[in-house]
């Protein structure tokens, strides 16, 4: 069929749906085109099922820790089938919520098919549909990046798209990648009784950049997880017992181990390689992604002029997180309606959280952004150690550290990195304070109740304040 639309949105994920709503509110009748199942990556195979697995792992962990508090829950049994069933039941509720929302939209809002560019204003789908669009939004997200060596695991290779479908928990799991997904899922599986080894080429654990925090993360995670960081994997093969991995460990010693499954958590790759971007007349960056303005979501033409094509969510390669996909989608949908005029909207303060235990947070500017740059002498660091922090000890969660970074002249808080208890909450407090450009002094005038984890934040703020202009 032939379609004509003011706005063709490629991808009905978080960014695409948010753009659809914003564009409709602004008076457009957008056409949303999706080549996979509805429900979004976040709800189907991302944020939500991973946090459901972590919730079960946290429950098991608390029971395992209880005897140290004098509480003896008896033999702890993890029913892997029940864990996975509950995960999928709750996950399906979230997915259904999204699907119902799309189903409530007017007919002809959604087209199924895989989209490619024919020319800057013309798209076609693999089902033979042709779309002429005044403006276009790229909201195509990403898919797992799988290094070719990992394919040797054959039918025992899992990514985030298969792991939540396992009928029960595996006995053993080799996790490749020590980034956010590898750490979150690897630790959760280990706490649920799965024998986990985590392989990574470097010694970097998760996104924290502050050397003191990286060291703390390494010391903490290697207490319980078999970390094969800096290992060199020689061969991976599908064997009758599962997946056999031969590798040189960090000391150069040859090892061979067999696992039930291999989980690839080795980063994400853009889906834009499948849309014939060459036909879109867009300027691309070194990664092959369209050059775009994060304040308008607008792409740039080959000749440097502003394009009628917008980009949002993970496809933009800017901040691949759910709340950012939502914001970018909204911005893109609204600007597509205003096009050729566009509005600039300031971005929120960056906030990254990792739902491990201890959790990780980066609020505002990271260590590298502030301290690996010229002018780093303008930055003071304040620190707190949670190993002896009162409330953290009370709750037996006394691990990790917090670093806050402030401007040495104005005292304004610029960034923070944390590994520690409740980093998801302290990270928000820090991000909100940074967004309001509060100074250390103003922050120290706020109430700090006793005994709370926030007192750890106060320690870090005080230590930075004491170093200002010394
Ligand atoms: C395991 C995991 C856990 C995560 N946990 C968190 C978390 O806790 N917190 C957080 O903030 N973020 C988390 N994320 C990241 C978050 O899920 C993403 O940032 C977010 O889903 C991106 O949304 P999006 O709209 O850009 O992409 P998506 O939701 O992936 O949507 C893109 C859509 O485009 C479709 N598409 C692609 N190409 C085409 C084409 N050619 N034609 C038609 N349709 C196409 C795809 O099928 C897909 O439906 C997690 C991600 C993963 C993988
Ligand atoms: N809590 C959250 O907000 C959350 C949770 C999960 C995912 N996410 C999002 O999903 C994105 C992707 O997560 P991810 O963990 O896949 O990516 P990542 O970039 O965080 O980590 C990828 C890891 O894979 C390693 N790696 C790459 N190639 C490898 C190879 N051949 N062998 C071994 N290791 C290899 C990298 O060194 C790195 O440690 C995140 O950046 C984030 O935006 C967010």
Automatic annotation (TrEMBL):
Residues 6-329 form the FAD/NAD(P)-binding domain. One of its GO terms (molecular function) is flavin adenine dinucleotide binding. SUPFAM superfamilies: FAD/NAD(P)-binding domain, FAD/NAD-linked reductases, dimerisation (C-terminal) domain. The keyword NAD applies. NAD(+) binds at residues 177-184, 267. Residues 352-460 form the Pyridine nucleotide-disulphide oxidoreductase dimerisation domain. InterPro entries: FAD/NAD-bd_sf, FAD/NAD-binding_dom, FAD/NAD-linked_Rdtase_dimer_sf, Pyr_nuc-diS_OxRdtase, Pyr_nucl-diS_OxRdtase_dimer. It comes from the Bacteria. FAD binds at residues 51, 314. The active site is at 450 (proton acceptor). Binds 1 FAD per subunit. This is Dihydrolipoamide dehydrogenase.
